[in-house]
Amino acid sequence: MTFLLSALAKQDVVEIATYIAEDNPLVGAEVFDDMWQTCELLSSMPEMGSPIETLLDETEISNEIREILHALPLLKGMRRFPLSRFKKVMVFYRVDGGMLDIVRVIHGSRDIPAVFASMVTEA
Known about the structure:
The chain is an alpha+beta fold. The chain has a single domain (2-122), classed as 2-Layer Sandwich (YaeB-like fold), CATH 3.30.2310.20. It has helices at 7-21, 25-44, 52-58, 63-71, 112-122, and strands spanning 2-5, 50-51, 79-82, 89-96, 99-107. It has a five-stranded mixed sheet with strand order 1-5-4-3-2. The protein starts with a strand and ends with a helix.
């Protein structure tokens, strides 16, 4: 199975790597390698990641917001998996036919439900 990073996912990875590189350029550059290796791993075993519903259920958000997010077509079939080295960075993806579609790459310190909600309001 091949993988494809969305424009937003590419932007996410660049922003994360740039932020890390401010303190340590070598480690910042390693984000790209870690991302590539994680995508290759997921493309060979796409069911490794947890369904996004588990994250929504674990996150402290109101039941009303949770129900809205669960109903979003954007999140149907979405899964999450951490980068190998940068464990707080999560890859959000879905399998679409024979393609692993990398939708977003988000650091766990961000308000992940809000990130996905903003994607809907911006679309």
